[in-house]
């Protein structure tokens, strides 16, 4: 019976060649399009899943009033990280800011856009796999730098990069303390170079609650209630900024497909 179906189908294809080609091409394009759409959606939903603590990682977004309108952005002040130690549900906190840096080693000079300044606690929050050094030895001070494997290859070839010195922005020397594996494609934080945030901060910013230029991430205890923690951070911000600014928590897993105010704009398109 099945052979008869095949025979009839082939006979119709031979008899109506143009009609058959149009139908077959239409079916092929439809299937290919469906597969591509599926792969795109799968990729978009995989963002940040390489982080082991994903379910408990949050970014602190600043909520403030400007000319009678409430707004939210991701900029926070430097003193916030230390102040967060008052909240027991917070296991770790880190600042980070991405700023291009010019690095030089011997005759090799490159402008690196994947350069990030962060607190050492970044390695307690985000997941890294080290091939040289460790989270404990990476960026202990402002004269140290942690780099990815591709950056290590670019500057040092097959040499062991640990202990090597790079010139940062033609001004200061930084010593390579750790090398980590490349991060997955599906991340909004594709760290390539990590330097200590104290190298980028000015002395007047250290106690200034009104200088906002850093993103702040926290790792909450597994038993913590994010709503309660948000209320505590909001109170902390307001107590140091004369009620001008508060805070809201945004889960790391929602940063890619959600606006900073929590609006799922991108998710709707997906």
How would you describe the overall organization of this protein?
The chain is an alpha+beta fold. Helices cover 29% and strands 30% of the residues. The protein contains 7 helices and 14 strands. It has helices at 2-15, 17-45, 80-83, 122-125, 149-156, 226-240, 265-269, and strands at 57-66, 69-73, 76-77, 90-98, 101-105, 108-112, 115-118, 130-132, 144-148, 165-168, 172-180, 193-196, 212-220, 245-251. Strands 1, 2, 3, 4, 5, 6, 7, 8, 9, 10, 11, 12, 13 and 14 form a 14-stranded mixed sheet that branches. A hairpin with a 3-residue loop joins strand 10 (165-168) and strand 11 (172-180). Helix 1 (2-15) crosses helix 2 (17-45). The protein is extended and about 85 Å long.
Count of helical segments? 7
Low-confidence stretches: none
Q: How much is the radius of gyration in Å?
A: 25 Å
**Average residue-wise pLDDT:** 92
Helix content: 25-40%
Largest sheet: 14 strands, mixed
Question: H/E series, N to C?
Answer: HHEEEHEEEEHEEHEEEEHEH
- DSSP, total strands: 14
The class by helix and strand makeup works out as alpha+beta
In whole angstroms, the N-to-C terminal distance is 44 Å
Percent of residues in beta strands? 25-35%
Shape: extended
């Amino acid at each position: 019976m099945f052979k008869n179906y095949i025979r009839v189908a082939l006979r119709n294809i031979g008899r109506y060649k143009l009609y058959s080609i149009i139908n077959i091409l239409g079916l092929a394009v439809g299937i290919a399009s469906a597969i591509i759409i599926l792969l795109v959606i799968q990729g978009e939903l995989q963002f940040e899943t390489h982080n082991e603590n994903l379910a408990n990682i949050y970014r602190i977004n600043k909520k403030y009033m400007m000319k009678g309108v409430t707004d939210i952005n991701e900029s926070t002040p430097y003193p916030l990280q230390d102040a967060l130690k008052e909240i027991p549900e917070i296991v770790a906190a880190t600042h980070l800011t991405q700023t291009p840096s010019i690095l030089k080693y011997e005759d090799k000079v490159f402008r690196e856009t994947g350069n990030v300044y962060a607190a050492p606690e970044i390695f307690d929050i985000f997941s890294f796999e080290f091939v040289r050094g460790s989270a404990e030895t990476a960026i202990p001070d402002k004269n140290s730098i942690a780099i990815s494997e591709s950056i290590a290859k670019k500057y040092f070839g097959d040499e062991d990069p640990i202990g090597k010195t790079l010139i940062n922005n033609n001004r200061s020397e930084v010593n390579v303390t750790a090398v980590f594996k490349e991060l997955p494609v599906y991340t909004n934080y594709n760290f390539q170079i990590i330097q200590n945030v104290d190298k980028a901060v000015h002395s007047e910013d250290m106690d200034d609650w009104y200088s906002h230029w850093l993103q702040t991430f926290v790792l909450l205890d597994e038993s913590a209630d994010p709503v309660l923690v948000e209320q505590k951070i909001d109170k902390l911000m307001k107590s140091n900024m004369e009620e001008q600014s508060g805070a809201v928590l945004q889960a790391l897993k929602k940063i890619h497909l959600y606006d900073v105010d929590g609006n799922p704009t991108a998710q709707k398109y997906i």
